[in-house]
Design a protein that fits this description.
The structure is a homodimer.
Chain A (H helix, E strand, L loop, with lengths): L4 E2 L13 H6 L2 H7 L7 E4 L6 E7 L4 E7 L2 E4 L2 E4 L4 H15 L7 E5 L4 E5 L5 E2 H6 L7 H14 L8 H11 L3 H12 L17 H8 L2 H16 L3 E3 L8 E3 L4 E3 L6 E3 L1 H18 L10 H27 L13 H35 L5 H4 L4 H20 L7 H13 L3
Parallel strand pairs in A: 1-7
Antiparallel strand pairs in A: 2-3, 3-4, 4-8, 5-6, 7-8, 9-11, 10-13, 11-12
Helix pairs in contact in A: 3-5, 5-11, 10-11, 10-12, 10-14, 12-14, 14-15
Chain lengths: 425, 425
């Protein structure tokens, strides 16, 4: 793994389009990758300007992406200050993820901590997984790739793999990523369950459903138990925002992007985020297609492949590379030890499945009732059709959260999905 | 709370006896507390010289303790390097514990980070709780005081009380306390379960028992699950070494001392450490007394009072001061909310009891088979009598670890204790 080039900007200022060429020209490995001189490079700003500046720069021999953090998020007409340091956390997360799961994140070429910018390889012809799913594209490999990404990135930053000193040193760095964690704490775990000015939903269709969730005391208690876990379980370096909009795909290549929410948290939050978004895509699909089958089943199959693949690979890593300070391998070397370790792994994976379903439910509810929605549902033009799908998402999410201790395999998720499709509540 | 005075030593060197007076004279609040001039002060070194220098300094108006870390631990004839920074972690932990649980830790008067020293109030006429228990002294208040210390220090450094930004900032500091955590990881969770040169036990009496534990695969798997929790559950700032030798008592006053192992870990580790040592004291007592009853029952009663008091106070704090980012109080304001919160608290306290028993079991086993033993057992001169008590400790510990998910109240611990007394395995 080559270390990314370190850019020594003196003071932060947002880059104008015409400053991008000279900026990149001063980074030798990037200039070499683009080829020839800056005059021959094309620069396109493709960020939505809400959160980050994102420039795609192409030269005669290659392309790069320059992503620079802006000090605020523009949203619902308002400005919300956001720390520039999130760019640095993204660079650290990309570095650790590349170490743990090579080839499954974009290559990091340069880091500019003061300038709050990173330069990465330009992923081309990749598209956002969410858009591919809305368009009904079959992608044979993304589920396996994401199962690998999850297993590798979570296992290899956990106490099952890292010596405790290394894990604590990494954790120390990411403990500073306070503000972005707080966004998740509020938007995922709290605001959808109370009257909050940022909340929105398909109204008036879901007014009753939103009120019912705000009044659902057993649900709120379970969501807060999951929030406590999010706040206090430092199991692994998690991506922290692993929805289908944070994954770029081709037919054969898959990359997890945008890990600025990364910190040491519960593994189930990442696995659950991806499952949540695949379950939303499954429920939303009939609104995007005249003939929803067999594609709708295909999406659900991918969710199962993600969990099963993750489960299998994680166990294999534990068996083959369990070098961390937890479950000291030496203690389980003989046959009875191996058998006991296997049972401990079964218990650990079962607990992780429970967490995964709980976090998935939280992520589904926030996409229907909270501040930030998803295109799978938002792009359904007819509000009655959209609300019908969203009601199913809420019902499934509620089941996942409240019944997660009784659900032991993906077959239980399928049953819950079938139930919701029959009786959307 | 007054901030401790900050001493600006330039380079570390261990303090000689005759350097102590001038050192303290340069700390105005300490000099004022001692009164008059250094010539009138008496200096006694009372540390065992293994780990720290500990000076008791008394002047005409008061006394202080000066504790300075040594860069090594002398043990079993060998020298084991230890970081001087542990003194700084102790000072930070004392500061946070004093904030959370005023009056239950020694007052910190001065901190010298480079000099690896702290100055504290001299606790007098306090004695070490372990010695009081060995001598059969009844202390009416320590159990309630320790229940309060545990509830306050754990609750008020958890996500139930602290805003997430404050908790993450604190956690960041304590993530650096790597070496001392590693000692616990090895000595408590690993070494007693493998052939390790530091291990020792009453031999030959316990040779078979030690071998049986090393071969006990189901037990090792559970201990490693607890170790994983120790490594990855950042629930609260825990003391990290809360045995009865870390508690100083009078009839009416109780203080937890020596928190140099402090870090953000699982709450059950502290509660379990104290219970473990009270259970050991209970089992050991008949060897120290011609008439073991009713004192032996009294010790066991104190263990129950610690748990019950902790449980009650922790819930009360949660109800009255639940201002943290977890379990956002606003969500549970109405009657159904309060009822659901109560059930969530029941589940949380039940899980905490389970953890407590598991960690207690680990702490008991290490005191019989590991490197560091306890005076309650070590001072039993007859090796057969000692081994008989130690066998009971091992049997009870094994039950606590393996049956902890089925044990729901202290009555179950009493039953396990009675079973061990009847059939010591």
């Amino acid at each position: 793994m080559t270390e990314p080039f370190s850019v020594q900007t003196q003071t932060y200022h947002p880059l104008a389009d015409d400053a991008v060429g000279p900026y990149l020209a001063a980074i030798p490995p990037v200039a070499a990758l683009l080829g020839n001189s800056p005059a021959s490079w094309t620069v396109r700003e493709v960020g939505d300007g809400n959160l980050n500046l994102v420039f795609i720069v192409e030269g005669p021999s290659g392309g790069v992406v320059l992503k620079q953090a802006l000090p605020y998020m523009r949203l619902v007409g308002d400005s919300w200050p956001l720390p520039l340091e999130r760019s640095y956390f993204e660079s650290m997360a990309l570095t650790e993820q590349a170490r743990a799961a090579p080839g499954l994140v974009p290559q990091l070429l340069a880091v500019d901590r003061v300038g709050a910018a990173i330069v990465m390889e330009y992923l081309n012809p990749h598209i956002i997984l969410r858009k591919a799913l809305i368009r009904g594209r079959r992608l044979d490999f993304f589920a396996d790739h994401m199962a690998s990404f999850l297993a590798l990135s979570l296992f290899k930053t956990s106490d099952l793999y890292l010596p405790s000193a290394r894990k604590k040193a990494l954790m120390r760095e990411f403990c500073a990523n306070v503000e972005l964690c707080k966004i998740t704490e509020d938007l995922v775990f709290t605001d959808p369950y109370r009257a909050s000015p940022g909340n929105r939903w398909t109204s008036p269709q879901l007014d009753g459903a939103a009120a019912a969730i705000r009044a659902d005391a057993p649900l709120k208690a379970e969501v807060q138990a999951l929030k406590l876990k999010f706040l206090s379980s430092a199991e692994a370096l998690i991506h922290g925002d692993l929805h289908t909009g944070s994954i770029m795909v081709t037919e054969t290549d898959t990359r997890a992007i945008d890990p600025e929410f990364a910190f040491f948290g519960p593994m189930g939050f990442d696995v659950g985020a991806l499952l949540a978004n695949l379950l939303i895509a499954t429920i939303a699909h009939p609104a995007h297609s005249e003939k929803p089958q067999p594609y709708q089943s295909w999406i659900l199959d991918q969710a199962e492949r993600v969990w099963d693949g993750f489960d299998r690979r994680f166990r294999a890593l534990w068996d083959e590379a369990g070098a961390g300070d937890a479950f000291t391998a030496e203690l389980f070397a003989d046959a009875p030890g191996k058998a006991s370790l296997r049972r401990a792994q079964d218990r650990r994976m079962a607990a992780l499945f429970t967490d995964t379903l709980g976090f998935a439910g939280c992520k589904m509810i926030r996409r229907v009732l909270g501040l930030a929605h998803v295109e799978d549902l938002e792009s359904i033009a007819d509000p009655d059709v959209r609300a019908a799908a969203e009601r199913k998402v809420l019902a499934l999410a509620r089941t996942l959260i409240l019944r997660r201790y009784d659900m032991t395999s993906f077959a239980d998720v399928r049953r819950a999905m079938a139930e919701v499709e029959r009786h959307p509540a």
